[in-house]
Amino acid sequence: xxxxxxxxxxxxxxxxxxxxxxxxxxxxxxxAQQNTSRLYLGFDANDYPGDWALPDLRKTFTFSGYxxxxxxxxKTNLWTGKREALIKNGFGFLLLFNGxxxxxxxxxxxxxxxxxxxxxxxxxxxxxxxxxxNGSVVIYLDMEEGGRMLPSQINYLEAWSTGVNSKGFLAGVxxxxxxxxxxxxxxxxxxxxxxxxxxxxxxxxxxxxxxxPSPGCVxxxxxxPPSQSGFSGARVWQFAQSPRRRNLTSRxxxxxxxxxxxxxxxxxxxxxxxxxxxxxxSADPSTLVFGSMx
Length: 294
Hints:
Blueprint: H1 3-35, E1 40-44, H2 54-58, E2 63-67, H3 83-88, E3 92-98, H4 111-128, E4 138-142, H5 151-165, E5 170-176, E6 180-183, E7 186-188, H6 190-197, E8 203-207, E9 236-240, E10 276-280
Parallel strand pairs: 1-2, 2-3, 3-4, 4-5, 5-8, 8-9
Antiparallel strand pairs: 1-10, 6-7, 9-10
Helix pairs in contact: 4-5
């Protein structure tokens, strides 16, 4: 090997080592960024906990669910007009609108027409309570049923999303991250199905209370990110529900109270409030820009 060849070998080895060191450096930076990403605990509840309970709840939770219409199973909405009380106590928001079940979308109902009308109702309710139509506020449509969406559900969700987006808000969806069997060894989650069929949706609030990946009704000191909810694109993960679903939570049943519900861990003010527990990478999950919707 002559001097020129030796020089080429040395140069090649140097370049390889430089590339390896650069890759290691980039990996360390990426890991550091992931490790320093803050995660925030929140709660949602069908019943408003009461103004007196908010200070105690704020000791644990950074954001709160906020229903714009009657929650599932309820005839009235106790959250109406409570935005200022939550702001006063320093909460971020998770805006929710209760959507229709598949049985409500059967003929002669036109799912697209109903979706458009429900979008108008969601926007009206949000503006009534002071949430701005500034193009950054997300309203999550509650789609309770899991598995693959029926065509009528997709039509309803698409019309709802189009209506919300056209009025200065952003359409999001609350849906399942739990795998549902489809036969022949195939599975699907509602979140994956909706994401593939409706790219118009900008934000996903995913429920998966199955243990694991959920730890149950616990206040995580080092919570897992929403991406571990069963859908990698989740913005928010609901990891515990009240009451607990026994078929999904047998491995973490001890984390729930004997009555099967989840409650606030601190303060007498919130001791009797039934909670669903959430984790998000944002302290204000219903806004998609830096800052706050307040």
